[in-house]
């Protein structure tokens, strides 16, 4: 039984991924582009050499963290759409800290910046969690609105406090605050790969332990499964909601902080909410909110994005085709009930053939 | 169960890696001196504005040299996010393009760091100045001059004595448009009021539309936009107002936007303050191919050398005459337009 369930759990994402690629291929054929060559370029451009691999791993780092953040709140039964805002606050916090304390020793400087960023992201999400727990405000609405407040507040702050007059980005942080060291640059042929990747992996491990081995993690999950029953069982539901949203924001904020220190080295006025915040939700959905699964889902997304940049460089195909592939994958994950129903039918058929099948639990 | 997930995913990945191994790596072909590519700053090469103008310049250069789009020819890489700048530049470097353009001031950091790591490749940055790199040519435009003429056109056309300006993000570059426009309006008639609004984005047509609608309702009858893709919304608002019988105009930016102002029964594009990014891209590509790329230098384009200018789309004869007179005065130095 366990065996078949785990296969089923994997079947939906794998079918969705395959279906997404097939749809992309059909579209390319329809418009006269060569899908095999394009998918080849996509693979080479994302995983084909050490530089591209570095770029892909760097790109997946914040995705892992925003996805984890979304997964934590989602396990508690809440839809935290605030990833982009929390990510931005984290990015902002880390850069502000690094710019203000450039004389701290390297380790303190980096830890301080990361903590400052994560905390800002956490506070941002905590606001929504607090409103949800004590006033019953829909966290969907508050987090969406908080996204815009974060975007325009940070644009204002960068423009007026950080940037020199007329420019619209902050100065760069000192070199020692950067997570992108010369060693890693040499190793990956000048890619933007940075130590943040390892921080993200460790965080995945920590969150996995949190969910599976700690009381607080258990409470979060139980509140997500049934709020009333948890209350009856003696769980402090309000506190759990606040904790879940706080952890969720801390993670997204950490993602922003790592991107700030590792990739951008500064912060600038943004046109739009950062897409990594929303993509994190997609990654979490594809991974069915499983922390380990998130690593692989983030790798796939990141490879598609980074490889996608190659498509238009090496052929005449517009790179938007990759967005269609990504969107189709998520679409198919979204309608997973269709697959599940189809798979369940199959399963029942098999069961009838072997009457013992349903008994082994 | 979790072990299985990992195992299967790992297997899938491995298959992927094998495919990569078999892949015929087209990047290994050698670059020629005559290849060039550009990286966009967020909008696509079809943004009807800045990036499109650059891409058309590169295309026309490529065609005149008999090159094809792709490796060893000319190409573009589109950035969907600020984090795509450096990967895009590096992909073009790996594909051996000899000259790489960063379209827009937002790319200056990325161009500067890529130039440091790749001293043999020519880089150019548009709308910003990268200092201290011998292989980077910086290109700037005296857009305050063309915006001045846009101001003259607006002032000569307005019936309500109230005109508007819609900018993208408040930055040095866009401020020059605003400053030039205000000076142009004032030169014609100091009594005309200029309303300045910023959308906070170059890609939000919806914001542009609601800003412009509010401005038209506020009795402003000519709007000059310097807002890239956001400007598309300004045109939509103007066309809607025109369909409802209001007489309103838009002054386009960067390239001739006459087509954007066309609607059934008329056209709302008064003029276009063009900034010939395409010309600059074309010029620099030519120089790079000849081996005299102006690395380390700042190249400035102005009215005199046709790097910026104004195109008459639907101006009255008298307004156009006035614009031409001011154009001469700027060209021969009688009027100096301040960028601030």
TrEMBL record, chain A:
InterPro entries reported in the protein's UniProt record: ABC_transp_permease
Keyword Iron: no
Official protein name in the record: ABC transporter permease protein
Localization terms from the record: Cell membrane
Species whose genome carries this gene: Liquorilactobacillus aquaticus DSM 21051
GO molecular function, one term: transmembrane transporter activity
Keywords: Cell membrane, Membrane, Transmembrane, Transmembrane helix
GO cellular component, one term: plasma membrane
Residues annotated as transmembrane: 12-33, 85-101, 107-128, 140-158, 193-211, 240-258, 295-315, 321-343
Keyword Protein biosynthesis: no
Highest taxon of the lineage: Bacteria
Membrane topology: Multi-pass membrane protein
């Amino acid at each position: 039984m366990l065996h078949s369930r785990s296969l089923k759990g994997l079947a939906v994402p794998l079918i969705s991924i395959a279906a997404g690629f097939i749809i992309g291929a059909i579209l390319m054929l329809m418009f006269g582009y060569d899908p095999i060559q394009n998918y080849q370029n996509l693979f080479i451009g994302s995983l084909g050499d050490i530089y591209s691999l570095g770029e892909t791993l760097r790109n997946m780092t914040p995705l892992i963290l925003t996805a984890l953040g979304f997964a934590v709140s989602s396990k508690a039964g809440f839809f935290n759409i605030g990833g982009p805002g929390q990510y931005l606050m984290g990015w902002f916090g880390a850069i502000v800290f690094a710019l203000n304390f450039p004389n701290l020793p390297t380790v303190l400087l980096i830890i301080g910046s990361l903590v400052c960023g994560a905390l800002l992201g956490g506070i941002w999400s905590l606001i929504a969690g607090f409103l949800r727990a004590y006033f019953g405000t829909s966290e969907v609405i508050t987090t969406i609105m908080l996204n815009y407040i974060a975007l325009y507040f940070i644009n204002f702050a960068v423009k007026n406090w950080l940037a020199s007059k007329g420019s619209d980005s902050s100065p760069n942080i000192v070199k020692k605050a950067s997570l992108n060291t010369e060693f890693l640059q040499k190793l990956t042929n000048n890619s933007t790969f940075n130590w943040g990747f390892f921080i993200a992996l460790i965080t995945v491990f920590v969150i996995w332990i949190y969910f599976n081995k700690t009381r607080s993690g258990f409470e979060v999950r139980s509140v997500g499964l049934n709020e009333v029953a948890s209350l009856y069982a003696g769980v402090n539901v309000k506190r759990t909601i606040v904790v879940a949203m706080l952890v969720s924001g801390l993670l997204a904020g950490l993602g922003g902080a790592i991107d700030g220190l590792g990739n951008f080295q500064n912060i600038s006025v943004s046109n739009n909410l950062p897409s990594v915040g929303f993509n994190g939700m997609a990654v979490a959905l594809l991974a069915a909110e499983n922390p380990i699964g998130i690593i692989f889902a983030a790798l796939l997304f990141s490879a598609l994005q980074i490889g996608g940049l190659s498509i238009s460089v090496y052929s005449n195909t517009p790179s938007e085709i990759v967005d269609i592939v990504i969107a189709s994958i998520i679409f198919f994950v979204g309608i997973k009930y269709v697959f599940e129903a189809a798979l369940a039918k199959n399963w029942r058929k098999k069961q009838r053939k072997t009457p013992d099948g349903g008994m082994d639990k | 169960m979790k072990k299985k997930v990992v195992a299967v995913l790992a297997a899938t990945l491995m298959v992927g890696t094998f495919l990569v191994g078999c892949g015929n790596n087209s990047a290994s072909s050698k670059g020629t001196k005559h290849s060039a590519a550009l990286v966009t700053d967020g909008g696509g090469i079809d943004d009807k504005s800045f990036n499109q103008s650059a891409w058309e310049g590169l295309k026309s250069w490529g065609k005149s040299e008999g090159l094809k789009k792709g490796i060893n020819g000319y190409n573009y890489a589109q950035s969907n996010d600020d984090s795509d700048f450096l990967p895009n530049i590096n992909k073009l470097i790996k594909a051996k393009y000899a000259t790489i353009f960063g379209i827009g001031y937002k790319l200056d950091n990325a161009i500067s760091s890529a130039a440091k790591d790749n001293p043999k490749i020519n880089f150019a940055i548009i709308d910003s100045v990268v200092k201290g790199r011998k292989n980077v040519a910086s290109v700037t435009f005296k857009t305050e001059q063309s915006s001045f003429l846009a101001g003259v056109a607006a002032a000569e056309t307005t019936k309500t004595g109230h005109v508007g300006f819609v900018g993208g993000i408040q930055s040095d570059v866009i401020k020059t448009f605003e400053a030039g426009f205000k000076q142009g309006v004032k030169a014609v008639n100091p009594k005309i009021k200029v309303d300045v609004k910023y959308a906070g984005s170059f890609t939000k047509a919806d914001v542009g539309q609601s800003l412009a609608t509010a401005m038209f309702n506020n009795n402003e009858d000519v709007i000059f936009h310097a807002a890239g893709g956001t400007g598309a919304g300004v045109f939509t608002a103007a066309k809607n107002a025109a369909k409802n019988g209001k007489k309103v105009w838009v002054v386009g930016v960067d390239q001739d936007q006459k087509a954007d102002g066309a609607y059934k029964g008329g056209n709302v594009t008064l003029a276009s303050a063009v900034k010939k990014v395409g010309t600059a891209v074309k010029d620099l590509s030519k120089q790079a191919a000849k081996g005299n790329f102006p690395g380390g230098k700042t190249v400035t384009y102005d009215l005199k050398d046709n790097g910026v200018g104004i195109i008459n789309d639907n101006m009255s004869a008298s307004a156009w005459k006035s614009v031409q007179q001011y154009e001469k005065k700027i060209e021969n130095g009688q009027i100096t337009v301040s960028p601030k």
